[in-house]
């Protein structure tokens, strides 16, 4: 029994949880304060987002350095070492400090 409230004020609901369910892709701050005008994207729940250190990824609770496999919090204090599964997930899905140009390849 009890309840869980995230640091940004979002309260977890065991039933009818609709946040980040695949249909509504807004961040919690967008739900509370509204969407930005067209052409101005909000990249994270924190707006403006934290600047990611060179060569690192933003993994949600801090920054990940894939060379050292260390995750630090947003004040750059050690949190944990990433195992193989977490490393793969972060490098596949998380926001990185650099931009890449990706070419569209149509299906044959």
From TrEMBL:
Alphabetical list of InterPro entries matching this protein: Morn5
Highest taxon in the source lineage: Eukaryota
Subcellular location: Cell projection, Cilium, Flagellum
Protein name: MORN repeat-containing protein 5
One GO term describing the cellular component: motile cilium
Keywords: Cell projection, Cilium, Flagellum
Signal peptide annotation: none
Residue ranges crossing the lipid bilayer per the database entry: none
